[in-house]
């Protein structure tokens, strides 16, 4: 498995300010991403998931995103936003199938939570359940936007362990946006700073 981004950035007028990004990830690899607030990290993940127009190309096993229907692409390239969307009343309605109890227990989520109304979930429960919901679809690539932002340290560590285990056992690639230097260290040694595109300033000076 090979996941590639080639010169990806936002289209003019998209609001993003990052220099075009190229990267390659193989099966089982985890890459962390960091950079200034507002530079476009979330928009970069959305581009990789084919959720927003962008320049450059994204390829999975050599096949361009442009050649695959968006819904098929997103089955293989799973995106978990910082603030997950919940559209039905009950948690279980958002799951394509029953998640393994081992995943729930690893994240300290009681199985009964699946039968709970979404409005009763805490912010951290939503965040953990959004990850489980994405994992159930068995993506080859997992794009995570600050997935531990609302979690205490213990739950954050458990979530890291679950994602690492998933990447290894399913030979999936993971891109994880994190502002936390300690967290990035726990996730491994591949890290990429998203930098500002200074092309226009450079041309003016
Ligand atoms: N739908 C949109 N239309 C226009 N501009 C947008 C849209 N979504 C985001 N932006 C802008 O794009 C820029 C990048 O936003 P993004 O959320 O990707 O930044 P970020 O690097 O993830 O920030 P943070 O670290 O604060 O989460 C911001 O200036 C934001 O206002």
UniProtKB/TrEMBL annotation:
GO terms for molecular function: ATP binding; ATP hydrolysis activity. The keyword ATP-binding applies. Gene3D superfamilies: P-loop containing nucleotide triphosphate hydrolases. Keywords: ATP-binding, Nucleotide-binding. InterPro entries: AAA+_ATPase (IPR003593), ABC_transporter-like_ATP-bd (IPR003439), P-loop_NTPase (IPR027417). It holds the Pfam family ABC_tran. SMART domains: AAA. It comes from the Bacteria. Residues 3-205 form the ABC transporter domain. This is ABC transporter related protein. It comes from Halothiobacillus neapolitanus (strain ATCC 23641 / DSM 15147 / CIP 104769 / NCIMB 8539 / c2).
């Amino acid at each position: 498995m090979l996941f590639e981004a080639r010169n990806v950035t936002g289209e003019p007028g998209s609001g993003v300010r990052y220099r075009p990004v190229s990267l390659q990830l193989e099966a089982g690899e985890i890459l962390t991403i960091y950079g200034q607030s507002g530079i476009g990290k979330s928009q970069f993940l959305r581009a990789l998931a084919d959720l927003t127009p962008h320049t450059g190309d994204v390829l999975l096993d050599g096949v361009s995103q442009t050649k695959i229907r968006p819904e098929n692409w997103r089955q293989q390239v799973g995106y978990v936003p910082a603030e997950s969307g919940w559209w039905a009343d009950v948690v279980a309605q958002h799951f394509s199938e029953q998640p393994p109890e081992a995943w729930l227990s690893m994240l300290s989520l009681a199985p009964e939570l699946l039968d709970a109304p979404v409005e009763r979930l805490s912010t951290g429960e939503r965040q953990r359940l959004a990850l489980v919901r994405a994992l159930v679809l068995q993506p080859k690539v997992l794009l995570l936007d600050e997935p531990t932002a609302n979690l205490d340290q213990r739950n954050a560590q458990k979530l890291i362990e679950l994602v690492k285990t998933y990447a290894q056992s399913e030979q999936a690639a993971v891109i994880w946006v994190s502002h936390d230097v300690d967290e990035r260290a726990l996730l491994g040694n591949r890290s990429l700073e998203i930098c500002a595109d200074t092309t226009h300033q450079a041309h003016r000076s």
